[in-house]
Design a protein that fits this description.
GO terms for molecular function: hydrolase activity, acting on acid anhydrides; metal ion binding. Pfam families: NUDIX. Its cofactor is Mg(2+). The protein has four helices and nine strands; from the N terminus they run ββαββββαβββαα. By secondary structure, the chain is an alpha+beta fold.
């Protein structure tokens, strides 16, 4: 089954399930669905950063400061976060990602999805999926901040990163 054929829950503005559709149709028709964003740090506190492959359905070849993806039909956000983190990092036995907050992402051009943001510590060596990740590294947060204006980033990841900084500022850490 291709990624475009994966069945997603379609949700309303309150994150209530209102139907199901294949991922390709959800993207093409701008149907609101669910996604997870997982910020990954190594034992030194550096952030996992990667560039998406040019074959990705959404935001090909752009940089991202999260791993993650869509929540499958009938899947919980928490289960999707662990599955996506392990798949994209190429590791098993990760601790369960810690949920931080949810927000409704809207690109202003007809694409919208509920986004659950998580964090996880990855102390294992990573082996990212070559079909998902074209380049990767763990970078100090200060370097990521410097790169925000230099590299082309996925817009939903930038929105999640901005909200995460606000969340951490509001919670004192």
């Amino acid at each position: 089954m291709s990624a475009a054929d994966e069945i997603l829950d379609i949700v309303d503005e309150h994150d209530r399930i209102v139907g199901q559709a294949p991922r390709g149709e959800a993207y093409a028709r701008g149907l609101r669905h669910r996604c997870v964003f997982i910020q990954v740090r190594d034992a030194s506190g550096r952030l996992f950063i990667h560039r998406r492959t040019p074959t990705k359905l959404v935001f090909p070849s752009l940089y991202d400061m999260f791993v993650g993806g869509v929540v499958g039909a009938g899947e919980t956000y928490d289960d999707a976060a662990l599955r996506e983190a392990e798949e994209e990092l190429g590791v098993s036995g990760l601790p369960r990602p810690v949920p931080l907050f949810k927000f409704l992402y809207d690109d202003g051009a007809g694409q919208s999805w509920w986004s659950a943001v998580y964090e996880v510590l990855c102390s294992s060596p990573v082996n990212p999926q070559p079909e998902e990740v074209a380049w990767h590294d763990f970078l100090p947060e200060a370097e990521v901040e410097r790169r925000l204006t230099e590299w082309a980033w996925v817009p939903d990841g930038l929105a999640a990163f901005s909200r995460l900084r606000q969340h951490r500022g509001a919670s004192g850490g």
